[in-house]
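Bump. Still looking for NUDIX hydrolase structure tokens.
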Amino acid sequence: MSNLAERTVATEPIFDGKVIKVRVDEVVLPNGEMSKREIVNHPGAVAIIAITDEGKIVLVEQYRKALEKEIVEIPAGKLEPGEKPEVTAVRELEEETGYVCEKMEFVTSFYTSPGFADEILYVYKATRLKRKEDKAALDEDEFVELMEVSLEEAISLMKSQRIHDAKTMFAVQYLQLQK
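Sorry for the wait, here they are.
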């Protein structure tokens, strides 16, 4: 077995924000050479594949400043300190869509960008949805439009790149495999 580990010899904090922290690590490479690594620390997040009793996929359309455009996504949100991923999934589903679910099932987890970030995304499937009478309780800086689409419509949204993020593309492909 080869040793590919990099040993950190110095760390410089660069930014400590509301959602992320950024640092630069100076490392010793396996060949003994020195290099720098820019690292983004993220608390982790959840994404919810929510399916209505009619078999529709619940999506949200929102403007993403980093992309300078609107995209269509599955509901998602970041973990709060000390919060278990399943609790976050239940909370985010209700906040973003106004739905509560009777069944929340863990699907998988994966690192979103392991080349520079430690963010892990926990994916859940929510079924037996019930719409709350209140509207979605969005964060004060969050504006979304709710969509409910068939799998075929979701595939079309993916082909047209209105669905253009990894978590939602994963969700659509996951549902295709479940057929």
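Residues 7-41 form one domain.

Edit: fixed formatting.
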